[in-house]
TrEMBL record:
Domain Integrase catalytic: 83-241
InterPro entries, per database record: Integrase_cat-core, Integrase_H2C2, Integrase_p58-like_C, Retrovirus_Pol_polyprotein, RNaseH-like_sf, RNaseH_sf
Region Disordered, residue ranges: 447-468
A Pfam family it matches: Integrase_H2C2
Organism: Synaphobranchus kaupii (Kaup's arrowtooth eel)
BP-aspect Gene Ontology terms: DNA integration
Name this polypeptide is given: Gypsy retrotransposon integrase-like protein 1
Record-level Gene Ontology MF annotations: nucleic acid binding
PROSITE patterns: INTEGRASE (PS50994)
Gene3D superfamilies: 1.10.340.70, Ribonuclease H-like superfamily/Ribonuclease H (3.30.420.10)
Organism superkingdom: Eukaryota
Length: 468
């Protein structure tokens, strides 16, 4: 439970705890954070007994951390700065370097930290010229907006005339720390120590590309909640938790949510059960209904079932359990009485050849009498064979009205005119039967001709109306 929001945690078995700790601490996105931050990162997504001791032992025994971790020392208490509530209304800036020259020529890092959300930004620089710093600040302000205050130390690039003119132009108040006392901007100084430590660890593997590793290091810092706020910088700025490697590991774990209903019980079907299948009713996938009932043949995998669908192109098909619903048959509350058919006992008469002897005739008659149901003259039915008609999928049996082509409209109009003005009873083929028609509109659509017969002749009427 965090901030009144209930969270689901994944239970990690003891054999898998080292693997999760490797992602949370040793991985590039873990950035070798301390015990508290690594423990907080674990508690946000996983649960395991003895997690605190496991994290402490893992972090303290980390070879990289032991080689580069600074020695703790006592510091004098500082006067706290006022709390800032608006993101990027006050920012702190500092320069880190010179560092080993990267393959792209970068030697310095411009650090910008938001005092409200603790959200950090780092910009690799080739030099610490004021023009380059001012240009990078304008690019940053285009994304987060203009701040009200900028807190820096007494470094020359920050105290230059170009920087003062830029702050005056943007109506930004420039605040400076006292000489030889950078602790005034302690938030940025602590971040610089964390950044240097993490870069030193990552540079052990690839010292020439540390500028390319900066985004990954920043991700690890932005993801972990801060002790002063209780939330991560990413959450405070964007209003949501970032999706990281631990989330991918949690999502990749086989969950038991598939194929379950609201009560948490998995839906199961047995062979022979009757089910309804949710399938589209037309070419539009948004229109679907439950068809069936069909019979379940067997279970395929964990959440799939093979269903028999007689009368379809594919007599059997595999469906996910979420597309199936149990068919509840209604109990029959009435009975149907069928007429009793009298069983005939008289001998069945069949034609016999003249060449048969009397004994052969008697044997044949006995055979016919014993198999009376086969040699019966009455029509019956059999279930030994069956015939199925398979139509093409998607082909309509009944055609809808269609538009008359322009090339045929004149010929059809002439034919209609000839039939409408034909005298009643004309034509030898009709005799006393007049063919009447109803002329449909030769517009955007045309229906098939509607014919009707009227005996007697002499009276014309429209098809579908009563004769006068």
């Amino acid at each position: 439970m965090k901030a009144g929001v209930q969270q689901e945690l994944l239970l990690v078995p003891h054999p898998f705890i080292p693997s999760v700790l490797q992602l949370a601490h040793t991985h590039l996105l873990g950035a070798h954070l301390g015990v508290e931050k690594t423990l907080e990162r674990m508690k946000m997504r996983f649960y395991c007994s003895g997690v605190k001791k496991a994290v402490e032992d893992y972090c303290r025994s980390c070879p990289n951390c032991q080689q580069v971790a600074p020695q703790p020392h006592m510091r004098s208490p500082l006067i706290p700065l006022p709390i800032i509530s608006v993101p990027f209304s006050r920012i702190g800036m500092d320069l880190v370097g010179p560092l080993p020259r990267s393959s792209r020529g970068h030697q310095y890092i411009l650090v910008v930290l938001d005092y409200a959300t603790r959200y950090p930004e780092t910009i690799p620089l080739r030099t610490i010229a004021t023009k380059g710093i001012a240009r990078e600040l304008m690019l940053l302000f285009s994304r987060v907006g203009l701040p009200e205050e900028i807190l820096t130390d007494q470094a020359t690039p920050f105290m230059s005339r170009i920087m003062r003119d830029l702050c005056q132009l943007m109506k930004v108040t420039q605040l400076g720390t006292s000489v030889y006392h950078p602790q005034t901007d302690g938030l940025v100084e602590r971040f610089n120590q964390t950044l240097k430590k993490m870069l030193k660890i990552t540079m052990e593997a690839d010292g020439r590309n540390w500028d390319q590793l900066l985004p990954f290091v920043l991700f690890a810092i932005r993801e972990v909640p801060r002790a002063s706020t209780g939330f991560s910088p990413f959450e405070l700025l964007y209003g949501r938790r970032p999706r990281g490697l631990l989330d991918l590991a949690k999502e990749a774990t086989p969950s038991n949510h598939g194929g379950t209903r609201r009560g948490g019980e998995r839906t199961e079907f047995a062979p022979g059960d009757k089910v309804l299948v949710l399938v589209p009713t037309s070419e539009c996938k948004f229109l679907a209904k439950w068809n069936g009932p069909y019979e379940v043949i067997e279970k395929v995998g964990t959440v799939n079932y093979q269903v028999q669908q007689p009368g379809r192109r594919s007599p059997t098909k595999v469906y996910h359990v979420n597309l199936l619903k149990k068919w509840v048959a209604r109990e029959v509350l009435f009975s149907i009485t069928t007429p009793q058919v009298a069983v005939k006992t008289e001998p069945v008469k069949v034609p016999m050849g003249e060449q048969l002897t009397p004994s052969q005739r008697q044997d044949l008659q006995d055979l016919v009498n014993r198999n009376r149901d086969v040699f019966s003259a009455e029509a019956g039915h059999t279930d030994l064979i069956q015939h199925r008609i398979v139509t093409e999928p998607g082909k309509r049996v009944k055609l809808r009205p269609y538009s008359i082509p322009e090339a045929r409209r004149e010929a059809i109009a002439a034919e209609w005119y000839r039939r409408m003005h034909r005298k009643p009873g004309s034509g030898a083929a009709h005799g006393n039967v007049d063919m009447l028609s109803q002329r449909e509109a030769l517009g955007s659509w045309a229906a098939p001709p509607s014919w009707s017969e009227l005996r007697g002749g002499g009276v014309w009427q429209r098809a579908g109306t009563k004769p006068r």
